[in-house]
Amino acid sequence: MKVYDDKYIKNIVLLGSVKSGKTTLAETMVFEAGLLKRRGTVEDKNTISDYHEIEHERGNSVYATTLHTEWRDYKINIIDTPGLDDFVGEIASSLRVAETAVMLINAQYGVEVGTEVTWNYLEQFAKPRIFAINQVDHPKSDYFMAVESIREQFGPAAVVMQYPLNEGEEFNAIIDLLKMTMYKFPAEGGKPEKLPIPESEKERAAELHNQLVEKAAENDEELMELYFDKGSLDEDEMRKGLKIGMLNRDLYPIFCLSAKRNMGSGRMMGFIDNVTPSAVEMRPEKAVDGREIACDAAGPAVLFVFKTLMEPFLGKITFFKVCSGQVSEGMDLVNSATGDSERFNQLFIMDGKNRTQVSKLSAGDIGATLKMKNTRTNQTLHAKEFPVELAPIEFPEPRIRSAVVPKEKKDEEKLGEALREIQTEDPTLRAELAPELKQLILWGQGELHLALVKWRLEKIHNLAVEFAEPRIPYRETIRKAANAMYRHKKQSGGSGQFAEVHLRIEPWEEGMAEPADLTVRGRETIDLPWGGKLVFYNCIVGGVIDNRFLPSILKGVMEKMQEGPITGSYVRDVRVMVYDGKMHAVDSNDISFKIAGAQAFKDAFRNADPQILEPLYEMEILVPEELMGDVMSDLQTRRSMIQGMESQGKYQIIRAITPLAEQYKYTTALKSMTQGRASFKRTFKEYAPVPYEVQQQLAAAQATDA
Ligand SMILES: Nc1nc2c(ncn2[C@@H]2O[C@H](COP(=O)(O)OP(=O)(O)OP(=O)(O)O)[C@@H](O)[C@H]2O)c(=O)[nH]1
Ligand SMILES: [Mg+2]
Q1: 6-281 has which fold?
Q2: Ligand 1 mean position to 221 CA, how many Å?
Q3: Which atom of ligand 1 is nearest the CA belonging to 138?
Q4: Which carries the bigger pLDDT value, residue 115 or residue 102?
Q5: In angstroms, what is the span from residue 263 Cα to ligand 2's centroid?
Q6: Among 260, 263, 268, 452, which residue has the most ligand 1 atoms within 8 Å of its CB, making it the best to mutate?
Q7: What is the chain's mean pLDDT, rounded?
Q8: Ligand 1 nearest-atom number relative to CA 83
Q9: 3.30.70.240, 1.10.260.40, 3.40.50.40, 3.40.50.10700: CATH of 612-704
């Protein structure tokens, strides 16, 4: 395999909504370059990119896949990402290492929902971008509608580079506004014939050409002057202006494609070669300590690990970008997070599941290695003498949760281990054992995301599991004050047990006054790990209980705080005043006071008008205008409080506060309500009292459980 100089390597990421044609385009780009004899299709389940069984089962990409093509003197590394926003982690990590994003837009629909998440990452990582309007051969294709939708959503920086001729089923030519040429394709696609622009199109082409020239000139003073002098720019001058504009992210060229018929990909690859920036031309990488790491093959070796994947038979594959220096076979680099040395026994270029072994990879390139045990996604590997940690990717928080149970109880431990491993591959996933819920909870981005985890557990880890409805982490508190006393007394042979505790409990709130009618001799404020507070007062007078027993009473109280008397949930926001009691010179001990404290607390709690609290989440739902009504009425059935609405282009953003208990499988419900055209995110807001009926139901359910 030819070794490419860093200036001749371009890394692109294909982004875009589900079924816009990313995988088909990737395949076409490799085929068109002559690196593939037969072009695979998504339908035939034989593309380079969608090589996982689950991708064949679903007909969607699920993983981001790296592959490469070679066009003229350049190597173009392509990362084909899944369009489903369940796999946003794959999108973010791919974007992090590519220089240019190619955003595919389906010519039938224009900009679809979900792009704003991707867009935020593009902005965060400051990446140049190209739009590619694909499927212009589709009978329902509407190219200029799609152009308008891009402009509406992303502003005037988007500028038309090309447009289709005979759009729809008859599509066979592209008018290119940079070259002012018509590319006419043979019926089977591939290499076009270059022809003059037909008379009928001249006027429109000239007008769009001028817009493009102006846009290219805008980015550079010298070009601006040239443009004023000559009234135009030549091709090279335009390329220069386009490149500066793209690097400043003030210009997004729009291309036109039929990936399926192999029409237009060659021209776009030519543009990627000649105009889109290479890693050398990009802003240097930022290190956590603020240093800048320039892409320089002669610099110290610095690699960023953007992805790891466990494959059956192969084991773990570690994907990285060489950000500086070179990596060669047999080299040792240090992991900045662990301080451990990692050896590169073999180096590969990955094209889907195919590996090509190489001896060396240089700055600006993307590669992979095997058997790297202790390195995870988002970590930096560096030369020993050049310690550095590159800015990691901030992955989005999980949006949904489910309980996961092994079909066989004996697999519990194995399941925990497998999930730990899957989490190291996928930072958008979280698994935690929730002791209060007595469930293993899996957090992810959507039901499909979790379905993929299940699939991996079954196929790769040989573990049969089931998903179950996760319990809700309720809390308990009280609404009024109550007193209770408890005497613990036991006479069983030898020494007995004796303790008597009188206490009062009250609802606690920030800034409340100290108890007025009691003598406060000590106070301990405990920030509860599950949220809220417990304030514990020693109000004992006359030494009726020794100071040394107070910690035992608190222990007893804490025990009950961890298992609330109504539903067994955690208790929060109460204060407890121990104000009286009795002890016995011989029989009193720690355990007796703990028991008495716990029981007194429990009795008082029951009389203090207990209240169950539930977690509320702030939801933000992006939905096409015409579907807003359906989504709103569904929200109302979920005990939501609508906070407001705001329009964004053709979309509405609905903000609502909804109890977690009403959100089980919401992503699926939303998908089916909107045919997948809406997206949502949510963040925890607060705990709030459940309505009376819900409290009755929960208390009754607990009573039958017990
Ligand atoms: N008519 C037409 N169909 C296309 C074109 N490109 C892709 N398709 C079809 O669109 C469907 C989806 O194509 P994919 O390449 O899987 O799309 P994708 O963007 O990778 O989809 P996800 O991986 O699910 O996000 C397939 O049936 C393709 O054959 C095109 O240019 N024209
Ligand atoms: Mg795909």
Answers
A1: Rossmann fold (3.40.50)
A2: 41
A3: 1
A4: 102
A5: 18
A6: 260
A7: 93
A8: 25
A9: 3.30.70.240
6-281 and 476-608 in the same fold: no
User: What residue ranges do the domains of the chain occupy?
Assistant: 6-281, 285-380, 400-471, 476-608, 612-704
Atom index in ligand 1 nearest the CA of residue 20 equals: 19
Distance 253 CA to ligand 2 centre (A): 22
- Closest of 25, 443, 593 to residue 262, by C-alpha: 25
Q: What is the mean pLDDT of residues 264-279?
A: 96
Q: Give the residues surrounding ligand 1 with Cβ less than 6 Å away.
A: 16, 18-24, 41-43, 60-61, 82-83, 134-135, 137-138, 258-260
User: Which band of pLDDT confidence, cut at 50, 70 and 90, is reported for residue 399?
Assistant: confident
Ligand that comes closest to the CA of residue 676: 1
CATH class of 476-608: alpha beta
Taking the centre of ligand 2 as the mean of its atom positions, its distance from the CA of residue 475, in whole angstroms, is 43
Q: How many residues does the chain have?
A: 706
Confidence of residue 515 (pLDDT cuts 50, 70, 90): very high
What is the pLDDT, as a whole number, of residue 124? 86
285-380 classified as CATH 2.40.30.10: yes
Instruction: Give the residue among 172, 207, 664 at the shortest CA–CA distance from 402.
Output: 664
DSSP 470: P
- Residue 377 CB contacts under 8 Å (≥ 6 apart), including other chains: 93, 305, 306, 307, 308, 424, 425, 426, 427
Which pLDDT value is given to residue 309?
92
pLDDT tens-digit profile of 482-506?
Answer: 999 999 998 776 778 999 999 999 9
pTM: 0.85
Contacts of 466 (CB under 8 A, 6+ apart): 404, 405, 407
158 C-alpha vs ligand 1 centroid, how far in Å? 23
8 Å CB contact between 325 and 258:
no
Tell me yes or no: is domain 400-471 CATH 3.60.20.30: no
Beta carbons of 165 and 175 less than 8 angstroms apart: yes
